[in-house]
Amino acid sequence: MLLLLAEGLSNEEIARTLVLEISTVKSHLARMMPKLGVTSRLQAVVWAYQTGLVTVGGTPDRPALHPKDEPPRFHP
């Protein structure tokens, strides 16, 4: 679900992709965010990039960039 969120999908699009009710997506996201230590969807996406769960243009199992070509990670 976090990967789909990082791709910019709305709750409705995530629900459609995962064949879930929108309320289920909202519930899962609401329960996930405190566990990640974030308070917004944007912070959750930033967390996903900072931890390497998501990379620019891809995911660890579908990398978009060769690891040596990966740009530096953003750390506030």
SSE arrangement:
Layout: H1 2-6, H2 11-18, H3 22-36, H4 41-50
Helix pairs in contact: 2-3
Helix content estimate: 40-55%
Rg, rounded, reads 13 Å
Number of strands: 0
Q: What would you call the structural class?
A: mainly alpha
Largest sheet descriptor: none
Q: What's the helix count?
A: 4
Please report which band the strand proportion falls in: under 5%, 5-15%, 15-25%, 25-35%, 35-45% or over 45%.
Answer: under 5%
Q: Give the overall pLDDT as a whole number.
A: 81
Report the order of strands and helices.
HHHH
Give the low-confidence spans.
63-76
Ends distance: 24 Å
Task: Assign an overall shape.
Answer: globular
Short account of what is shown:
This protein is an all-alpha fold. It has four helices and no strands.
Describe the structure.
It is a single chain. The protein is built from 4 helices and no strands. The chain has about 80 residues and is mainly alpha-helical. The longest helix has 15 residues, at about 20-35. Helix 2 (about 10-20) crosses helix 3. Helix content is about 50%, strand content about 0%.
